[in-house]
Specification:
The chain has 5 helices and 14 strands. Residues 31-53 and 230-241 have low confidence and may be disordered. The chain is α+β, with helices and mostly antiparallel strands and 241 residues long. It has a domain at 73-240. The strands form 3 sheets. It has an 8-stranded mixed beta sheet. It has a 3-stranded antiparallel beta sheet with strand order 1-2-5.
């Protein structure tokens, strides 16, 4: 995607804008075929198309692109490393240790925020309202995030053998939990659920106490990948089945 002049949606500077991935390239792991193409699946069976570089829009200047890439690199190193998501999950509630909880949450927030400011029809399910600006400020100054803000639940997508399914990518879908809006998105072998709230209510805090543990650890839930949200991209293995 060629650069074009415009206003960076993050720092609000008028400059040349990069072709930014809404969902980072690292999350497309397992979705490409031998020609490095991912197949986008929409509600209409005749509305399929191929992409080779993921879904991108001219959203960010090069400085902000680099700013967010630092968090993406952190997530990639952790998530695909030996202490990240297991390749096979048999137990119901395995514990995942997060080495940097702020970076972990920033990664999820950056995806949700980019989907909210993007204009493509793939992202029309996301509208953060006043939280769009609040999250923008956090992405500019991560010190504004504190424990308890915008909690994230992780459900590993597994098949009938407990093997993690990496070849599914889903557009963010909105739901509701108590007084909080919720968005869940599929990528990197899991369904990530972000609760859009700065101050969880009593009902949500009770749920958080069951998932968030001391020492920056969370309980990793399991979910049958066939019951996950709207799938945009499938692995080559699924397409050839």
């Amino acid at each position: 995607m060629a650069m074009q002049s415009g206003t960076c949606r993050l720092c609000l500077t008028t400059t040349q804008l990069c072709g930014s991935h809404v969902i980072p390239e690292l999350c497309y792991e397992g979705t490409y075929d031998s020609k490095h193409r991912a197949k986008l699946m929409h509600a209409s069976p005749n509305a399929e198309r191929w992409v080779q570089k993921g879904l991108r829009e001219n959203l960010l200047c090069s400085t902000c692109e680099t700013r967010l890439s630092r968090t993406e690199n952190w997530f990639k190193t952790f998530w695909w490393g030996p202490d990240g998501l297991p390749t096979n999950i048999q137990s119901d509630l395995p514990v995942l240790s997060i080495p940097d909880m702020r970076q972990f949450h920033l990664f999820q927030l950056a995806i949700l925020w980019r989907a909210s400011v993007a204009t493509g029809k793939e992202w029309n399910t996301v509208s953060l309202g006043p939280y769009e600006e609040k999250i923008r400020q956090i992405l500019l100054d991560p010190s504004q995030w504190s424990t308890g803000m915008y909690p994230v639940f992780v459900q590993a997508l597994v098949d009938e053998n407990g093997d993690v399914v990496y070849g599914a990518l889903g557009k963010p879908q909105q739901s509701q939990y108590g007084q909080s809006h919720v968005y869940y998105t599929l990528y990197a072998g899991a369904e990530f659920t972000v609760f859009v709230t700065e101050s969880p209510d009593a009902e949500l805090r009770k749920l958080l106490d069951e998932v968030y543990m001391s020492g920056d650890r969370i309980r990793l839930l399991r979910k049958d990948f066939r019951k996950s949200g709207t799938v945009l991209t499938w692995s080559r293995q699924r397409r050839e089945a």
